[in-house]
Specification:
Number of domains: 2
Shape: elongated
Largest sheet: 16 strands, antiparallel, barrel
Strand content: 35-45%
Length: 465
């Protein structure tokens, strides 16, 4: 029995010893598998960590964009978009601040602007391209180039909640001067509450939203352009349509008669009644059409005579998106006694007599040989195509014309017609900066059949703040 017991033990020990290499191999294999699995798990954890970091970054960016969107949304809710020429509209919104101890929010914006200009002819408006400022005589100007910061401006808007809705105000200044100097001009002093507005701003007869995307400050010779004191009432419909009525400051711009020697025609303007405008804006998917009318009374008085006449005008303007990259802007205006509202007719170089000592006066109305006041007919229009090359590049090309049906008593150098055209390329390197180059051509003709023209090259740089 003892011999059998020892034999069994020996056999067991031998078996165990023979299995040790096998068990060692199995253990090594399992350890290798565990190490591989651990490495895989570590890679998965690292990938998840990277995804978490990416999600965290995206969350931060999304939150930042959401904050910006909220700021823009709040600003849009507080401040209805104030229309201005396209060259002054940057992608970056104006900055808003909440005043302490007040419900009022201020919105501050503006631009620093430089125009570098070269002229080939005798254009006496050195900083704005104005065909009616082209001199018929050589030597009227003594330089060909101008540098001007006149398109720099500052705007301060406010919004205050009231029981009648938001009360908004706008204060604006620019630095434009026709000779290129920096000169403060109050452009907008405006307030609105509900449907009512009062102060100084764009005339209800004009349409700044149809202004082409050009670098020239003056704008098309034919554009209806006036900023003046007024009382306004807006009536919005349930659609995109809108009615607007204004009572505005009247200022007769009378022509001097050719039967009076020199500037001896001494008269007093009679502005007994304000100018009245009414307009209707019909909005649709691809644009809008604005139809406006104006009625005004013009009058004069001298020591021996006086008279009054009614002036009137019709203005149709708007814009139409042909496709995503092309927009047509246009205006067609006709009337009598509305010359003061037209860019070129309002302020001819020869109007005040500083050019040659013989003033022609304005283009609203003129006195005939019998002392009767006659409203002067005028027809103007322009058409422009604004093209979007890309997110950063745009162009505009177009023309404008002015045609005045002069009355017999006007002087020979009174404005009779003018032509205006330009083409440009504008680059927006950032949402808050702009660079553009523009080629301009204009021509003018007088009642006495004198004519002159000018070619101008303008480069502009603008920075929003």
């Amino acid at each position: 029995m003892k011999i059998f017991h020892h034999s069994v033990c020996a056999t067991a020990v031998a078996t165990i010893l023979s299995l040790q290499p096998v068990l060692a191999n199995e253990t090594d294999k399992r350890l290798d598998q565990l190490e591989k699995r651990l490495a895989e798990l570590e890679q998965q954890v690292a990938q998840k960590d990277r995804k978490i970091e990416e999600l965290e970054r995206e969350t931060v960016v999304t939150a930042h964009l959401a904050d910006k969107a909220a700021e823009v949304a709040i600003s849009s809710a507080l401040f209805t978009r104030f229309l201005e020429r396209p060259s002054y509209q940057f992608d970056a919104p104006d900055k808003s601040i909440q005043l302490t101890n007040s419900d009022t929010t201020l919105q501050i914006g503006g631009q620093i602007w430089l125009d570098a200009i070269y002229n080939s002819g005798e254009m006496t408006n050195r900083a704005g391209f104005q065909p009616s400022s082209i001199a018929y005589d050589e030597g009227a100007t003594h330089d060909k180039t101008t540098l001007s910061a006149g398109q720099s401006n500052l705007t301060i808007n406010s919004s205050t909640p009231t029981q009648y809705g938001a009360m908004t105000t706008r204060f604006g200044v620019d630095l434009f001067d026709s000779q290129g100097n920096a000169k403060f001009n109050l452009t907008h002093l405006w307030g609105e509450l509900g449907n009512w507005g009062a102060g100084q701003t764009f005339s209800g007869f004009m349409d700044i939203d149809a202004f082409p995307n050009i670098m020239d400050y003056w704008g098309p010779n034919s554009v209806v352009f006036a900023r003046q004191p007024q009382l306004r009432y807006n009536l919005h419909t349930n659609t995109d349509d809108k009615f607007m009525f204004t009572i505005e400051k009247s200022d007769a711009d009378l022509a001097l008669p050719n039967f009076v020697t020199g500037n001896d025609f001494l008269y007093v303007e009679q502005n007994d009644l304000p100018d009245i405008t009414a307009s209707y804006i019909n909005g649709f998917t691809k644009g809008y059409i604005k139809s406006s009318i104006i009625l005004r009374q013009l009058g004069y008085e001298t020591s021996s005579s006086d008279d009054k006449v009614i002036g009137w005008g019709i203005n149709v303007s708007g814009k139409y998106a042909i496709d995503r990259k092309n927009t047509l802007k246009y205006q067609l205006t006709h009337g009598e006694g509305i010359g003061r509202y037209i860019n070129d007719a309002c302020c001819s170089y020869y109007a005040d007599g500083t050019a040659d000592g013989v003033a022609t006066g304005g283009s609203d109305a003129g006195v005939d040989i019998n002392g009767k006041l006659q409203a002067i007919p005028i027809t103007v229009g322009y058409a422009y195509l604004d093209h979007q090359w890309s997110d950063k590049y745009t162009s505009s090309i177009g023309f404008g014309y002015v045609e005045i049906d002069n009355i017999d008593s006007q002087r020979s150098r009174a404005l009779s017609s003018s032509f205006y055209s330009n083409v440009n390329l504008i680059w927006n390197p950032t949402p808050m900066s702009r660079v553009g180059v523009e080629l301009q051509y204009g021509k003018v003709e007088s009642f006495g059949n004198e004519d002159a023209d000018n070619v101008r090259l303008q480069t502009s740089i603008g920075f929003k703040y």
